[in-house]
Amino acid sequence: MAPKRKLQNADERKVKRTKFILADENFVTSTTEGVVLVTGQNDVGQLGLGDEVMEKNRFALLDIPEQQIVDVCAGGMHTVCLTKSGKVFTFGCNDEGALGRKTDEEENSEFKPGEVNLPGKVSQISAGDSHTVALLGDGTVYAWGTFRDTHGNMGLTLSGNERIPCEIINEGPIVKVASGENHIAFLTKNGQVYTCGNGEQGQLGRTTERHSGRDGRGGMSKAQIERLLKPALINVKPSLKLHFENIWCGACGTYAKVAGADDIYVFGLNNYGQLGLDHRGQQYAPAHSKIFSQQKLLEISVGVHHTLALNEDGKVFAIGRHEYGRLGLGADAKDATELTEIPKLSDVKVTKISAGSCTSFAVTDKGKLFCWGMGTSGQLGTGNDEDCLEPTLVGGKQLEQRSIIKVSSGGQHTVALAITTNNNKGESEQAES
Fold first, then answer.
1. What residue spans carry the region label Disordered (predicted)?
2. What is the pLDDT of residues 86-112, one digit of tens each?
3. C or N: which end of the chain has fewer Cβ atoms within 10 Å?
């Protein structure tokens, strides 16, 4: 009779993870200083141009005195700017605390940039519909605002809305943060991914359908709210021994790139195939996307129902819903179920992409800005409110002597970072010319 196999204890059954550390330099924000250009709706101050301007349909210069801006981020109805010295400035809607500062002491102060008080130098920023995130140089993360789901306000923490910055995750150090409309993803230095917020569409990658949302009749227990609001690891099989080297978030989806490989894992809303999966609906657990893994991708940017992808050759691809021209594939386009290269950009090398709710943008290596998608509120910056069905070169007075280095599109507004290309004029002279 064969001897009985010795039963392993729980610790012995755990799959050992190999030691893995991501390099900090992979996530350092550029120190190139630029000026901030804004276009679109300003009804709640999201352009920072004061309360007398309701809308712009071409990019306008935003003055943030004595500040060297190195990064910009458009939320749903607010905007975030990062300075070279690691300070954060916000403006726009502050109903849920998304600005992280008091705006009731001075009339209409949400309509102009104001500094957020943070305990250290900030290295990264991200923004969702009603929340903002700041990653500090020491790997700690502070956030403010709130998450929302189909039943209303969820709060940012168990305390509810957070109107001033609070430390949101204790796991770390964190090397990258990314925001969806109502969720946040965190990438640790050890290559692990944590998420928190609204999980109704599966965008947290760690909840079942049954435990992803609040019951409209009886609400949600405190324990269930805590499971959603407290950052926790995504549900990847330990036996795969996966580490991740990058993350991106869309409105209701999350994308994670496997370290040292082209493989992309996805979870969240896939009703138009924007996750690159065969089935339609929600994906609650991380799934390998063959479609996204076929390209050597540098960047992914996601709207509500469409996704843009940039590969290492500077080529831009789109997938998902076609309405309003957000895919950039022309008047005869249909919904794309595969990553489809955008023909109108085939002759240029793209370095940055950005997808808003129903908009798309691309920045070339020559500093040119292309836009396509919904233009209803002037958020494309073309000078009118027409939709663009294919990539269209953005012009205007404020772009004549400038190169675009970064663009971020939100709900109904867009913000860009630009540098001067005419060395004979200063920024103040150009603004007056």
1. 200-219
2. 999 999 999 999 999 999 888 889 999
3. N
